[in-house]
């Protein structure tokens, strides 16, 4: 992987991680269109650390309060009803599905799930589901209404993003909207829920960087830094956008991109299984 390739992939990751359009799909598609090798699931997981560091910076005070209250709740019963401590436990609960499914399907994550025909299909299907959720969701709940059952539902929705094209933020926000949460509240919880999942996945895959045919450390670090800077700007913009706007523009984009992928595959412009993981 060259330095220019690393910068472009870092930009793509930063621009798409927090939008409901799937960053992993866009990394896969960008590489295919440029004629590069598939950067692979390991590279994708590692550079997502950069965008999650942007989440930690943006929500720094809130995350700090949650960690402190959660830790105190382990040893002091009076802290167990604290809203921040409760949120800490609910983030852990919501992280369980992606850990379990990630381990069970890790071989498919590196191979079968990266087929562009699957990516195109889920871009369209989950885009339509997001549109339905955005329209029919009652949007009256805040994070004060979050329960263990709701946390697990959010977590299952997040785990679907193991398939490129679903979108981690798109999946969790869709689940939240169907449960009746507002766009802003569902998005905030999806960001908080992603931190342990993405950091865990990134550090789990980090040993594969620099080995065999995988990307080298230098370009990977550069892509991670670029994704951090761009990701922070996107978070700031998105949190303002969703307070007054719907997800319809993203739905239209997802469906159009999915259709375009099918056309490019049909005419032979893209090989759906190109890349070292296959």
UniProtKB/TrEMBL annotation:
InterPro entries assigned: UppP (IPR003824)
Domain of life of the source: Bacteria
Membrane topology summary: Multi-pass membrane protein
One biological process term in Gene Ontology: cell wall organization
Main EC class the enzyme belongs to: hydrolase
Subcellular localization(s) per the UniProt record: Cell membrane
EC number annotated for this UniProt entry: 3.6.1.27
GO cellular component, one term: plasma membrane
Pfam families assigned to the protein according to its UniProt record, in alphabetical order: BacA
MF (Gene Ontology): undecaprenyl-diphosphatase activity
Entry keyword set: Antibiotic resistance, Cell membrane, Cell shape, Cell wall biogenesis/degradation, Hydrolase, Membrane, Peptidoglycan synthesis, Transmembrane, Transmembrane helix
Substrates-to-products reaction catalysed: di-trans,octa-cis-undecaprenyl diphosphate + H2O = di-trans,octa-cis-undecaprenyl phosphate + phosphate + H(+)
Additional facts recorded: Bacitracin is thought to be involved in the inhibition of peptidoglycan synthesis by sequestering undecaprenyl diphosphate, thereby reducing the pool of lipid carrier available.
Name of the protein described by the UniProt record: Undecaprenyl-diphosphatase
The gene coding this protein: uppP
């Amino acid at each position: 992987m060259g330095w220019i390739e690393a910068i472009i992939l870092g930009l793509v990751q930063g621009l798409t991680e927090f939008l409901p359009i799937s960053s992993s799909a866009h990394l896969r598609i960008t590489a295919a269109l440029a004629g590069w090798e598939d950067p692979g699931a390991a590279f994708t997981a590692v550079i997502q650390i950069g965008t999650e560091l942007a989440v930690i910076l943006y929500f720094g005070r809130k995350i700090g309060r949650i960690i402190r209250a959660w830790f105190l709740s382990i040893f002091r019963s009076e802290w167990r009803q604290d809203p921040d401590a409760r949120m800490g436990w609910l983030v852990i609960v919501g992280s369980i599905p992606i850990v379990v499914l990630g381990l069970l399907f890790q071989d498919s994550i590196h191979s079968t799930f990266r087929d562009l025909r699957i990516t195109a299909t889920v871009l369209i299907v989950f885009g339509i589901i997001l549109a339905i959720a955005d329209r029919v969701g009652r949007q009256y709940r805040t994070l004060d209404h979050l329960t263990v059952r709701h946390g697990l539902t959010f977590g299952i929705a997040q785990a679907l993003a193991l398939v490129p094209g679903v979108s981690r933020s798109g999946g969790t926000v869709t689940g939240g909207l169907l449960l009746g949460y507002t766009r802003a509240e569902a998005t905030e919880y999806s960001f908080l829920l992603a931190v342990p999942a993405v950091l865990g996945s990134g550090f789990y895959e980090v040993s594969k960087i620099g080995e065999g045919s995988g990307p080298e450390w230098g370009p990977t670090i550069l892509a991670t830094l670029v994704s951090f800077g761009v990701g922070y700007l996107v978070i700031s913009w998105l949190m303002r956008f969703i307070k007054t706007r719907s997800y319809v523009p993203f739905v239209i984009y997802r469906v159009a991109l999915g259709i375009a992928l099918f056309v490019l595959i049909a005419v032979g412009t893209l090989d759906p299984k190109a890349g070292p993981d296959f």
